[in-house]
Write a structure and sequence with these properties.
It comes from Afipia massiliensis. This is MerR family transcriptional regulator. The chain is mostly helical. It has three domains: 72 residues, Multidrug-efflux Transporter Regulator, Chain: A, Domain 2 (Orthogonal Bundle), CATH 1.10.1660; 90 residues, no CATH class; 108 residues. The termini are far apart. A three-stranded antiparallel β-sheet has the order 1-3-2. The chain has 15 helices and three strands. Helices cover 69% and strands 3% of the residues. The radius of gyration is 32 Å and the shape is elongated.
Length: 309
């Protein structure tokens, strides 16, 4: 049985691929001609046109020439080739998302500088290890000359190191950029260091007791909020009194007027960015900002201000 043959010009017209591109594929060994004429011109058959269709599909999918060669020579399955291409494409998409996040952050800057753009770009391209280093550097600065418990600091670093997926959403990228800016703010670092020094340099602070007390108390506040009790309610008054006594105990202090005054000073100096910190960590973990205990702590603080003022 004889196969119909086509000149390279005819093959180009039938396939919609340029003569130049056909020669390129042929020279690269991807599309060997069925034969040549006496004058040395390439000729192709329907079999080569089918092969050409596969080459075009793979190229349109972004598969490289080397991988196509392996598919055609059966050294690489078509499934594996497409899987590799999909993986690469997903990485490209993730990279483009990070670029978009850097651009959004830059455009939000009121007076954009080249240094700002470089910082935004760097922050969106850090690895998990590098992101952890940013968090560790922040806690190292906060703990300078403060007797912070090393285990507590390790727990905080673990809890707040962003676990961004390989293909982060724009919201996750934006959250990381915003968090990195907060952590890099000397004023915020100084505020957190001052707060830490007040707590940790107190001789009687009991970390284990604090951790044991906070979780069940947060649960009580969450339940009160769910039942519709506001910070000014009688239920809030009860919980404010309970927290006054509990917090004083773990701080090694008496729940007297001096302690109340100390609490009021701390509440007045509270930096809203400390709340935003945990909201951003939640976003980076793919969770709602409301999954952090910020809402409950805000309710507790408002109740303390109202009832113990």
């Amino acid at each position: 049985m004889t196969h119909r043959t086509y000149t390279i010009g005819e093959a180009a017209r039938l396939s919609g691929v340029s003569v130049r591109r056909l020669r390129f594929y042929s020279d690269k060994g991807l599309l060997p001609p069925a034969g040549r004429t006496e004058s040395g011109y390439r000729v192709f058959t329907d079999e080569e046109l089918v092969r050409l269709d596969l080459i075009r599909c793979l190229r349109d999918a972004g598969v490289g020439l080397d991988a196509i060669r392996e598919v055609l020579s059966h050294e690489l399955s078509l499934t594996d080739a497409l899987r590799l291409r999909l993986r690469a494409l997903e990485a490209e998409i993730a990279s483009q998302r990070r670029v978009a996040s850097a651009l959004r952050a830059a455009l939000r800057s009121p007076e954009l500088t080249e240094a700002d753009l470089r910082r935004f770009w760097t922050m969106t391209n850090l690895s998990r290890t590098e992101r952890r280093n940013v968090i560790e550097r922040f806690y190292s600065q906060v703990s300078k000359d403060v007797r912070i418990d090393p285990e507590w600091m390790r727990q905080m670093i673990e809890a707040s190191t962003p676990e961004l997926p390989d293909d982060p959403t724009p919201e996750q990228c934006d959250a990381w950029i915003e968090l990195s800016a907060i952590l890099d703010d000397p004023e915020f670092v100084a505020t957190m260091r001052a707060n830490a020094k007040e707590v940790w340099d107190g001789a009687n602070f009991d970390l284990a007791a604090w951790q044991a007390a906070t979780d069940p108390f947060i649960a009580k506040a969450k339940d009160a909020i769910a039942q519709g009790f506001g910070p000014e309610s009688e239920r809030a008054h009860e919980l404010a009194q309970e927290w006054l006594e509990t917090s004083a105990r773990v701080m090694g202090r008496a729940p007297d007027d001096a302690y109340k005054a100390w609490l009021r000073t701390r509440y007045a100096a509270h930096d809203a960015r400390a709340v935003r910190y945990w909201e951003l960590v939640a976003i980076m973990k793919g969770q709602s900002p409301q999954t952090s205990p910020n809402r409950e702590w805000t309710w507790i603080i408002d109740a303390m201000k109202h009832h113990l003022g």
